[in-house]
Write a structure and sequence with these properties.
With about 525 residues, the protein is an alpha+beta fold. It has helices spanning about 20-30, 50-60, 70, 80-85, 125-130, 160-170, 175-185, 205-210, 215, 500-515, and strands at about 5-10, 15, 30-40, 65, 90-95, 105-115, 135-140, 145-155, 190, 230-235, 255, 260-270, 275-285, 290-295, 310, 320-325, 330-335, 340-345, 355-360, 365-370, 375-380, 390-395, 405, 410-415, 425, 430-435, 445-455, 455-465, 480-485, 485-495. It folds into 2 domains: about 5-215, Rossmann fold (3-Layer(aba) Sandwich), CATH 3.40.50.170; about 230-370 and about 395-405 and about 465-510, no CATH class. The strands form 6 sheets. Strands 1, 3, 5, 6, 7, 8, 9, 20, 21, 22, 23 and 24 form a 12-stranded mixed sheet that branches. The chain has a 4-stranded antiparallel sheet with strand order 11-10-30-29. The chain is built from 10 helices and 30 strands. A hairpin with a 6-residue loop joins strand 13 and strand 14. It is about 15% helix and about 35% strand. The protein is elongated and about 75 Å long.
């Protein structure tokens, strides 16, 4: 293990938020914080002077309360510019601008909002809520290399203050996490800082918004994942890595339409004792209620027998992830009411799920169990942001005991965090399907390349976005992509133009016409 400690200096504006002081406290454990230096008033970007009604609603005892640097950094001494020049990293806080003149060879880090505004200027997610946006973004950037070091993208809902507090608490750990990664030489592919960022209204905007404050408070638009709609399961007779290609096959064969008012989604495949392909899936009403786990046997002739219930006792059972464990196909099921994740082997006669065993006493959404680098990993999201907040656990065996990742939650990004299928390896590289829930009624799946996965670090890069399978019966969206051998199972939301039988038949007719024309 690398024992070196990074030298970090602080550039501090006239005011410091409590959560920024907590970020400094976290740095003490992993780095040598050499001291702080106050910037000139002319170079500082002081926090916005919010209207009194908003300040009162935010409260005086939140992480956004401003304190003077001397009080917040008690025990840490001011330093000279010469001492700052010897640091490896300069962390800008309290309104200090990272575009101030460079100091030595140090790299300059700073928190910022999605529009480039200094992170100290206003609480995270506040402006997005007032503007009735569905999601908010906050990041830690390296302004020397023009790269994003960490980013959080979260839903904006009626828990306005709570959301801002959670984002601040999440972000306070970033500088220390990044230092740890660098000390262990865990460098990853850089994420470039966008040159054009979304602009938000400036300070004059607040005087207009004061009148709308009370009506907007508690009424932000919903960004929660929508499970409703006429979903169906499709079979792509190609290995999943084909979807990494821009021009890869998208010729999905959809199962016959579900019964009227019913929906099939979240399929995961396995082969039974006879070698036939089976799909476990979530069966529900179109409004998302009455969820249970069922199975079907997709046939080449597309003629299905009635689906068979496999698990009905769990309330609103969902996401029946399938893993091969001890030579048997097993479902990984999360019981949110009991706050547990359970491995449930499929009966040898394929009639249902065995009771199995509890492997984690936590409530996980979309639990995914897979093996990588001699460890078993359990991924899933947790409340209060089940569409964004990714947690990970590792163990030597699939039965545990599982230990939570050192940096868990490992990421918080509604664009590509929540598991959306089976991780797979292509050309020696691990990929992970993840849900893009930023538009809850038009879901998509990202195929993320996992660049780094160890017990102390995690990084991944979105590679290919699958928006659905257009020009097919269920091409309006996709929420699950799971591989089973040379076959890939997907789900899709019904298009208002085509129905399943007509869409599949039309492809067959076109092929017949081509043969006759030869």
């Amino acid at each position: 293990m690398n024992a070196r400690r990074t030298r970090v200096a602080l550039s501090v504006g006239p005011y410091l938020s409590v959560w920024e002081a907590e970020a400094v406290t976290a740095l003490f454990a992993v780095a040598d914080v050499v001291g702080w230096r106050a910037v000139n008033e002319a170079d500082a970007s002081a926090p916005l002077r919010l209207p009194g009604s908003i300040r009162k609603a935010i409260g005086e005892e939140t992480p956004f309360r401003a304190v003077t640097p001397i009080k917040a950094l008690n025990g840490l001494s001011p330093i000279s510019s010469a001492e700052m020049s010897a640091a490896e990293i300069v962390l800008h806080l309290g309104g200090s601008q990272p575009d101030s003149p460079s100091v030595g060879n140090a790299r300059h880090w700073a928190f910022m909002h999605a529009d480039g505004t200094n992170g100290s200027a206003v609480p995270p997610a506040l402006r997005e809520a007032l503007l009735e946006a569905t999601h908010a973004s906050f990041m830690l950037a390296d302004f020397t290399s023009k790269q994003i070091l960490h980013e959080i993208v979260t839903p904006v809902d009626d828990e306005l203050l709570a959301n801002g507090v959670r984002i601040a608490e999440f972000a306070a750990a970033w500088p220390a996490q990044r230092v740890i990664e660098e000390q262990h030489d865990l460098e990853c592919a850089p994420v470039e800082l966008a040159t054009t960022l979304r602009r938000f209204p400036t300070i004059g905007f607040w005087h207009v918004m004061m009148r709308k404050w009370r009506s907007l408070w508690g009424s932000a638009p919903s960004a929660r994942l929508d499970a409703s709609g006429a979903w169906n399961i499709g079979v792509l007779h190609q290995p999943v890595h084909v979807l990494l290609q821009e021009d890869g096959s998208r010729n999905v064969r959809w199962l016959p339409n579900p019964s009227k008012g019913r929906s099939r989604m979240e399929p995961f495949g396995y082969f039974d004792a006879e070698g036939d392909l089976n799909a476990l899936f979530r069966k529900s009403a179109e409004d998302g209620s009455e969820g249970l786990i069922a199975r079907v046997r997709p046939k080449v002739d597309n003629i299905l027998k009635r689906s068979r219930p496999m698990l009905e006792r769990e309330a609103e059972a969902a996401f029946p992830f399938v893993a091969q464990i001890d030579g048997r196909p097993c479902a990984v099921i999360s019981d949110l009411e009991k706050s547990e994740v359970r491995i449930m082997p499929i009966h040898n006669d394929n009639s249902g799920l065995e009771e199995g065993r509890v492997i984690l006493s936590e409530a996980l959404h979309a639990p995914s169990l897979f093996q990588h680098a001699d460890l078993w990993w359990l991924f899933g999201t947790r409340s209060p942001w089940p569409e964004a907040r990714l947690h990970g656990y590792h163990a030597g065996t699939p039965h545990g005991p599982f230990v939570e990742h050192a940096c868990s939650p490992m990421k918080c990004d509604a664009r590509n965090s929540r598991p959306a299928g089976t991780p797979f390896v292509h050309e020696g590289v691990l990929y992970r399907p993840a849900l893009d829930a930023t538009d809850p009624i038009h879901l998509a799946v990202w195929l993320n390349r996992v660049d780094l996965l160890t017990p102390i670090a995690f990084r991944e890069t979105p590679v290919r976005r699958i928006d659905g399978f257009p020009a097919t019966a269920y091409g309006k969206g996709v929420r699950t992509i799971s591989s089973i051998g040379e076959v890939t199972l997907v789900d899709g939301l019904r298009s208002p133009v085509l129905d399943g039988v007509r869409a599949n038949a039309s492809r067959g007719k076109s092929k017949s016409k081509k043969r006759r024309s030869r």
